[in-house]
Amino acid sequence: MASADALDASVLKALGHPLRMRLLTFITERGEASPVEMSRALDQPLTSVSHHTRVLRDLGYIELARTQPRRGALEHYYRATAPPFLDDQHWELLPAPARRRVAAQLFRQVFRDAATAGQSGGFDAASAHIARMVLDLDARGWRDLSRAVLTLLRRAEAIQARSDARRDGGRAEPEEARPSELAILHFAVPKPATGPDRPARRARPPRLP
User: Fold this and answer.
1) How far is CA 16 from CA 100, 131, 200, in A?
2) Which terminal residue of the chain, N or C, has fewer Cβ atoms less than 10 Å from its own Cβ?
3) Are 38 and 80 a contacting pair, CB within 8 Å?
């Protein structure tokens, strides 16, 4: 079993580079992908994509799923073995510039996907969710909310696994999958200036029904 230090180094090497994060996210979303496909889709040089794909493979974040003959060569398709997100401990290990690069990349991707979904009716369903809540947390509240977010992400993984099992369970008419995206943002904002026209403390958020 790898030591904690070795695991930390592995996480930093795998996800500390923005292109590797993009590749792992792409493979996870597609189920499997080849360096050639990712090079075209992400508009990145094939040599760079192939190099970073090998790094992810060597670190155990992806594995070879299959090969396919194409134009006299074998095209390698990879699938993800680990989710492309970091828990609090590993996020803290990343240097601040790396955190900002990863956050900016994911921010752009989330809002691009959300805008496209909004234009095509992705939020029309009664069970779709979009919400914004401004909070004022002490240190313990911040940690509690962070743990709650990670718990939700783990539950989402488990729900996906059960959904996959139902569809792959050999039913004569498996249920059609509904592609969706779960995005969670929780971030620090600058404290508002206080003065005669600004309250020193913000009002409590409304209770959910």
Assistant:
1) 10, 30, 39
2) C
3) no
CATH number of 1-84: 1.10.10.10
Helices and strands (DSSP H and E) totals, the chain = 7, 2
CB 14 within 8 A of CB 54: no
The model's pLDDT over 87-111, given as tens digits with 9 standing for 90+, comes to 677 677 777 777 787 788 778 878 8
The DSSP element (H or E) to which 69 belongs, if any, is: strand 62-70
Domain boundaries, the chain: 1-84
The token duo for 136 is: 């004022």
Nearest to 35 by CA among 24, 61, 72: 24
- pLDDT one-digit tens code per residue, 31-74: 899 999 999 999 999 999 999 999 999 888 899 999 998 877 88
Q: What are the structure tokens assigned to 51, written together? A: 């190099």
The answer to whether the predicted template modeling score (pTM) of the entire model surpasses 0.70 is no
